């Protein structure tokens, strides 16, 4: 699933390729499934319009237009973007395409069709409708503290709550807690001031690192827990304890379930 780092990479790509170009046509392969509004309404809003800027909030991407409408894009499980000109270069899973007058096209790819595209009045209106918290990439310790105060739920479960810090997915939560030295099952409300400050700092650091690596996880620093998580998709390797050592203390990495989600942690470093 595209997480915050991937969506931020998509946003920057669109900024570099698709702004300031008049839209001549809009294609949607399966509008009833992919659009959050009627296809004719979507086309009327965009044909003759142009994208002028972008913003991201968590995993949600917003494209601003010259006429004021804001296109919302959630990439679902398998979303991606492409920019091309020749018909022969059309990606296989191009579900929605914006045609520009210069002959190029911006495609939203989605092999499993779980993504959704809509239009909103503004980012703030959308945020309030969806009850989204402050973006995880820029969240402050004060904002994080508001979401965690007096909560008895495990900190891992609350980090995945998009009302607290939208954009934190499962592996990101594990990585952040590992780097902060916090056990994933610790009650969120038990964190004291300095721990919340450290947690907010590690949220920002992990996300910035992932974005700088363009979400290519094998390029993450050697001290990151993600290199142990990779074996989750390789059953044969997963049985080899040598591949699951903590990069900090060499203890075995543990795998458990918190809030129904697979969770990796070091029981020595995350007491």
UniProtKB/TrEMBL annotation:
Keyword field: DNA damage, DNA repair, DNA-binding, Glycosidase, Hydrolase, Lyase, Metal-binding, Multifunctional enzyme, Zinc, Zinc-finger
Catalytic activity: 2'-deoxyribonucleotide-(2'-deoxyribose 5'-phosphate)-2'-deoxyribonucleotide-DNA = a 3'-end 2'-deoxyribonucleotide-(2,3-dehydro-2,3-deoxyribose 5'-phosphate)-DNA + a 5'-end 5'-phospho-2'-deoxyribonucleoside-DNA + H(+); Hydrolysis of DNA containing ring-opened 7-methylguanine residues, releasing 2,6-diamino-4-hydroxy-5-(N-methyl)formamidopyrimidine
Native organism taxonomy: Bacteria, Pseudomonadati, Bacteroidota, Cytophagia, Cytophagales
Gene designation per UniProt: mutM
Residue ranges annotated for the FPG-type domain, each copy included: 241-271
EC number(s) per entry: 3.2.2.23, 4.2.99.18
Domain Formamidopyrimidine-DNA glycosylase catalytic: residue ranges: 2-115
Cofactor(s) listed in the protein's UniProt record: Zn(2+)
Species of the source: Rufibacter roseus
PROSITE patterns: FPG_CAT, ZF_FPG_1, ZF_FPG_2
InterPro entries noted in UniProt: DNA_glyclase_Znf_dom_DNA_BS, FPG_cat, FPG_Glyclase, FPG_N, H2TH_FPG, Ribosomal_uS13-like_H2TH, Znf_DNA_glyclase/AP_lyase
Highest taxon above the source species: Bacteria
Molecular function GO terms recorded: oxidized purine nucleobase lesion DNA N-glycosylase activity
Protein family according to the UniProt entry: Belongs to the FPG family.
Alphabetical list of SMART domains matching this protein: Fapy_DNA_glyco, H2TH
Presence of keyword Metal-binding: yes
Name assigned to this protein: Formamidopyrimidine-DNA glycosylase
Complex formation: Monomer.
